[in-house]
Amino acid sequence: MPHESPGSPPSDPPGPDASRRSDRARRAILSATRDLVAEVGYTRLTIEGIAAAAGVGKQTIYRWWRSKAAVLFDAILEVNSHEQGSVDLPDTGDLESDLRLVLRGTVAALAEPANDRLQRAIAAEIQTDISVAEELVRRLLRPQLDACAARITLGIRAGQVDESVDADLAVELLFGPIFHRWLLRTGRLDDQFADNILALVLKGLRPH
């Protein structure tokens, strides 16, 4: 059994886990960002406000993010449970089933009240700020759209989709009606709506 030599100082107890402390601070910052942008909008969102709401110093935020837009998009990505470029769609071999899962998930995310407020704040901002719009497409929308297009391309190879179909355009046809209804509040966003869109679009995608 190990023992200390006479006169040697006692072993220091383990200190606080810096990684856990950092992770708690990061999550607090992202949560505060989501709450604030839904409450005051993107234009009035400030690093100072985020820091105060999260209980951290401004320098803590600037250590990890270069701007409030960068913080915001990490906050959105955390809610959507993926990082840039790592979107994976299911591939069960049944294209209709896989796309149904994705579309229903999109509808559910947009219908969730907290996420709805967050997304609407961003939707308003991208009308006048092209840099935020480009960041939204690059970090959030493009990975999702590309992943769906890749899944449709696999459907073409498997003979489930006509070989003449443009996969990117097919994705626009699937998601366009969902975002249109969400943005303009023209009707209910639910599984039935997602399923109806999918059924209609797949009629045009099937091999002729």
From TrEMBL:
DNA-binding region residue numbers: 46-65
Annotated region described as Disordered, given as residue ranges: 1-23
HTH tetR-type domain sequence ranges: 23-83
Highest taxon, organism lineage: Bacteria
Matches recorded under Pfam families: TetR_C_11, TetR_N
A molecular function GO annotation: transcription cis-regulatory region binding
Composition bias type Pro residues, residue spans: 7-16
The name this protein goes by in its record: TetR family transcriptional regulator
Keywords annotated in UniProt: DNA-binding, Transcription, Transcription regulation
